[in-house]
């Protein structure tokens, strides 16, 4: 059986890689019980370092919208060059709120 694919970066998620579930609509914004997607943990961290819960709920509740965000698109280009199990601190500074 092949490894699941991270829908954000489109790299495989091997069993030893840190991974997490992302609620497409944040739980705090009415997304409890809403669909989730399995992501690399580093991809999930970058989403939450980039966008507020309100922004996620309002404008970024789909993988396509997340992939189109300028900072996330730059992150995806960067992470695509790393091996599937790569883990580090989130690159770049946390967005000011």
Automatic annotation (TrEMBL):
Can you tell me where the transmembrane regions are?
A: none
**Composition bias type Basic residues, residue spans:** 20-30
User: What name is this protein filed under?
Assistant: HNH endonuclease
Task: Enumerate the residue ranges of region (Disordered).
Answer: 1-32
The alphabetized UniProt keywords are:
Endonuclease, Hydrolase, Nuclease
Query: Which residues lie in Low complexity bias regions?
Result: 1-11
Molecular function per GO? endonuclease activity
- Which superkingdom does the taxonomy of this entry point to? Bacteria
Where are the annotated coiled coils located? Answer: none
- Asked whether the keyword Ribosomal protein is assigned, the reply is no
| Protein's UniProt keywords contain Nuclease | yes
Cite the source lineage.
Bacteria, Pseudomonadati, Pseudomonadota, Alphaproteobacteria, Rhodobacterales
């Amino acid at each position: 059986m092949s490894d699941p694919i991270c829908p954000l970066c489109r790299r495989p998620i091997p069993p030893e890689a840190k991974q997490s579930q992302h609620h497409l609509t944040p739980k705090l914004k009415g997304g409890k019980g809403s669909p989730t997607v399995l992501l690399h943990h580093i991809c999930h961290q970058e989403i939450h370092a980039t966008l507020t819960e309100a922004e996620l709920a309002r404008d970024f509740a789909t993988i396509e919208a997340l992939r189109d965000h300028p900072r996330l698109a730059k992150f995806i280009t960067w992470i695509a060059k790393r091996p599937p199990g790569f883990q580090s601190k989130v690159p770049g500074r946390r967005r000011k709120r």
